[in-house]
Amino acid sequence: MNTAVVLLLILFVLMAAIGGTRGVKSFFTLCLNFITLFIMLGLIVFKLDPIKVTVFGSIIITSITLFYINGINRKTVAALLSVTLVVLLTLLLTYKMGTNANIQGFSTEQSESVAYLTQNVQVNFVKIVICEILLGLLGAIIDVSISIASSMQEIYRHDSLVTRQDLLRSGMKIGRDILGTMTNTLLFAYIGGFLPLIIWFSKLNYTLSDILNAKVFVSEVFQILSSGIGIILIIPVTALITSAVLFLGRSQKSESVWDDGDGSERPSKS
Q: Could you tell me the pTM of the whole model?
C-alpha cells in the first residue's frame, strides 16, 4: 500500500478517535480544501487571473472550514468577513512591494533547472508570489479569527451587561495573547520549508552578504513578513467585525432573549 495512503488512514483514525464527530468533519474539511486547491491550480493553468482565483478560492476554503465544522452562526459569519477583508488588505499592501522587490521568477541558483523547462508558460510570476503569500497566510488567519470570534461570543452570551466597547476590548486582549504564539508558528513553518535552502547555501560557501541578497532567500523572508502583517491585521479586524455582528439588530427594550445565531439564547440587557 502506498505510504501516503497509510499516513492518510492513520490521520483519519486518530482524528476520529480523539476528535469524535468534530474530528471526522475536520478530516473531510481537509480533503475538500485539498480538492479546492487543485481546482484553483487548474484554473490558473487555464490562464485565469491568479489573484482573482486565489481570492475567490480563499473565500471558498474559509467557508468550508468555518461553516462545515462550526455551523452557520454569528461567530463563523464574523470570522468569514474578517478573513476575507484581511486577505484583500494583505493583497493591497504586498502587491506593489512584491513587484518592486523583483522577487518573482527564478534565481541564478536555479539556472540549471530553468535550462530544462519551457519558457512559454505565460504566467505572471509576480501574481504567483502574491498567491503564495495569501495561501500560506490563510490557515493561520482562519485559526486566529475563529478563536477570537468564538471567545467573544462566549463572553457576550454569558455576560448580559457587557457593552460593545467592553466586548471589543476583550477581543483585542484575546488577540494579543494569540499573536505571539501564532507568529512563532508561522515563522517556524516557513523556516522548516527553506531549511534545505540554508544548508545548500552553506555547502556552496555563501557569505552572509550573498545569502541576504539571494533572490530565493529574500523571497522567503518577504513571505514571512507579509504573513506576519496579515496575522497582526486579523486581530483588530476580527474584534471590530465580531463586536458589530454580535450586537447587530439587538433590541434593548422589547426582546426578552437574544439569539446568537447558533441555536443558543442569552438574556437581553434590560
A: 0.79
